């Protein structure tokens, strides 16, 4: 550790099932977000108390000060920066649609007049809404990524909008989906706190992230879940 341990414990909200960033493997909560923030905490001498709330619930918990921060594959956007302070970006994402392997849908135009699933409060929802008029989409919001996936499998939607690293990870795990379109609304994921509050936590996050990048531990964590070059 680069600094002496303190007694500080921060309560951090995260998503529920959002592999490879956070998920339960049957034994424990793990994933890139979890391992990264736990390693930063160790490096910076604080303790993380994780709360698996779901994405929208975690963001709302932060706004109502029930948690100190959110680490949930949360994209840094101009709109969110009005409300939150973000640490340095730690992963680059972007939104695509996932369709079942056997689907007729090959590109965005094939979504014309169809129903798509989105997750409430996410960039995926923002992206689908940006295409709503042009493609005459019906958009059904869900709370969890697993709910979107189930909706498509059950035929209640033909596609779901999601960060492509998450759809892509599922594909490598045999989800039976494929990606269509090109990544949109790209941008970095950031650790968030309420604007103007907890600046010291953002400082610790950034210092710890820089240390993990310098030591190679950042790369090790990423490679644990998605391999090098991904
Ligand atoms: N990256 C997306 C966003 O910030 C989705 C995050 C998530 O679903 N956990 O909106």
Automatic annotation (TrEMBL):
Localization, UniProt: Cell membrane
Family: Belongs to the binding-protein-dependent transport system permease family.
Protein name: Amino acid ABC transporter substrate-binding protein/permease
Range covered out of full length: 45 to 274 of 744
